Amino acid sequence: MGKKVKAAKNSSEKSGTTSKEKNDKKLRKISEEIAELRKKYIKISSRQAKMDINDYVLKDTDGKDVKLSEMFGDKENLILIHNMGKACSYCTLWADGFSGEAYFIEKKAAFVLVSPDAPEVQKEFAASRGWKFRTYSATGTTFIADMGYYTEAEGYWPGVSVFHKDAEGKITRISKDYFGPGDFYSAPWHFFDLLPETKEEKEK
Asked: Could you tell me if 8 and 71 lie in one domain?
């Protein structure tokens, strides 16, 4: 009897190891597929995003004019967040996350947030959230609509545009993306994915 139990245990352990190895292999394959699809997504999205850009004039939080070209600082690339404004709680969730990441992002590219809110509204709200990046107001300009983040039919959309400025000062948009629950730009959603479904979620 003892030998049979030991043999069964060894068989179970061997089977478990094999199962783990198979699952690890599947997970690696899925991760590689996700990474490859992400590259393809960015490639296609960048083709759609590419366009020459005028040197728009926006407002800083003190109401002073600031050219888009000035937002680059000493960087060649500018990551610009299209935020829908104070009234959008989801936009605030994204921006709060960026605040902790801005220090690291700005080692590679300039990083700013633009919204339709008036400068004084932006200034007060950014301070209340403790945001550690620059914010600019596009109120009174066509910038947000021209970038594809506003239409009269659908209103504002959140997202990101990435701009490049060459040695001659020419500005080109080189990539863009939209924000939404489960995207690559807000960490909480990915933690939520690891939680068990609630009763309400199961009933949907």
From this structure: no
